[in-house]
Amino acid sequence: MTSTDDRPGGASAPPVRQGGGAAFWLRAERLLSGLATLALWVSGAGLTLMTIIITWQVFSRYVLNRSPSWTEACSVLLMGWFIFLGAAVGVRERTHLGFDVLLYFLPAPAKAVMRTISDIVVLAFGAGMIIYGVQLARLTWNTVMPSLALPGGVSFLPVIFGGALVCLFSLERLAGRFAGLPVDVDIHATGEEM
Hints:
The chain is mainly α. It is 66% helix and 4% strand.
């Protein structure tokens, strides 16, 4: 029995074998797709809110001649959230810049090996984000951001959450590849990424 895989970009994947593992994979993929969509919406909301705050700061400074003290710190905090959450979604959707020239010339099995190595490196990077983000948050938690009256460690929370999403999305791709699912169908078929 076969079923199609609905991708967020509207592209459809080839049929996937239905079985216990494939059914679990499809449920996990839907859950992670929802998580990626949520992260993207939070990222977009953060970018919009930061734009509004910066606009208010400019207006306050140059029109009212009284600039609020909290706007810069709040904008930087929001920027951390939308950068790291957006980057994690970019890992899942493979929209980051990459050096993929070699993939054009390799046979399909070698492409899968290269993609697996890439996913392992990204997974390690995400784990590093979590580990070092937690260390930095602990070191700075007892300090206070004066203009926001928040613990200093709050500024490292986006690194930790972004790293967790990077790890989840990398593991999703690795697990799918090892299960024999068509996670690299676009690479195998055309030699290029979507």
